[in-house]
Amino acid sequence: MNKLNILFVCGAGLGSSFAAQISAEDVLNKLGVQAKLDHCDISSAVSMRPDVIITAENFRSQFEKFPLDPSTAMVYLKNIVSKSEIEEKLTPVLLNKGAI
């Protein structure tokens, strides 16, 4: 399989999405998963076609209004920098996508 494309999304596409990306890098390294990581704002995310979008729980209602590709897996986090929460919620997605 090609590298997974994982997109981290927040309101402005700068602060919290980048913080989540940094935390997820450690989790992905621990799991031995190679992925292409990027971060952006919520409005830009709609036009991109990542394999996985990781974002804060408070953006769920906004994403539910967008016509996303059905193959894009959504991961909603209560604490965007919690490595344990990222690992817990991302592992089943990675298994489903054949990355681990």
Automatic annotation (TrEMBL):
UniProt KW Signal keyword? yes
Q: Which SUPFAM superfamilies match?
A: PTS system IIB component-like
Molecular function terms, GO-annotated: protein-N(PI)-phosphohistidine-sugar phosphotransferase activity
Q: Tell me which positions the record assigns to the signal sequence.
A: 1-19
Q: Which domain of life is it from?
A: Bacteria
Domain Phosphotransferase system EIIB component type 2/3: from-to ranges: 5-90
**What keywords sit in the KW lines?**
Signal, Sugar transport, Transferase, Transport
Any idea what this protein is called? PTS sugar transporter subunit IIB
User: Might you name a Gene Ontology BP term for this protein?
Assistant: phosphoenolpyruvate-dependent sugar phosphotransferase system
